Amino acid sequence: MQKIPTWILVVAVALFDENGRVLLQQRPAGKHHGGLWEFPGGKVESGEIPQVALVREVAEELGIGLDPAALEPCAFAEEMGCPAIVLNLYTCRSHAGEPAGLEGQQFGWFDLAGAAQLALAPMDRRLLQQLVR
């Protein structure tokens, strides 16, 4: 009998600016995939709705506000491991405030071709490929 992994739900956003660029941030050194680039987001806590978790995570990491109603489900990726992770990606085309690396992380706005040239975390690379289709 195959053991079923414990799945961790993670949410992220492909936040686009008025020029069609997407906001990406660099994972802190010392964390899983440290130094690699990713879509902003984080873990969904117990009892949280995914969109609400995403709004919370982006505010904590980058200090910007998102409207949960403006988040559109877009794609997902999975990573088997201990724990196993499923990452749901949403798109959004509006935000309040200017981003800041509140956790000391680097961030930037990139066109999709430029984003593809970055050292992306594996699931984020798969998600980016789904965006450019």
UniProtKB/TrEMBL annotation:
Chain coiled-coil ranges: none
Keyword Hydrolase attached: yes
The keyword Metal-binding is assigned to this record: yes
SUPFAM superfamilies per the UniProt record, alphabetical: Nudix
Assigned EC number: 3.6.1.55
Similarity field: Belongs to the Nudix hydrolase family.
Protein name, entry field: 8-oxo-dGTP diphosphatase
Native species: Aurantiacibacter gilvus
Lineage summary: Bacteria, Pseudomonadati, Pseudomonadota, Alphaproteobacteria, Sphingomonadales
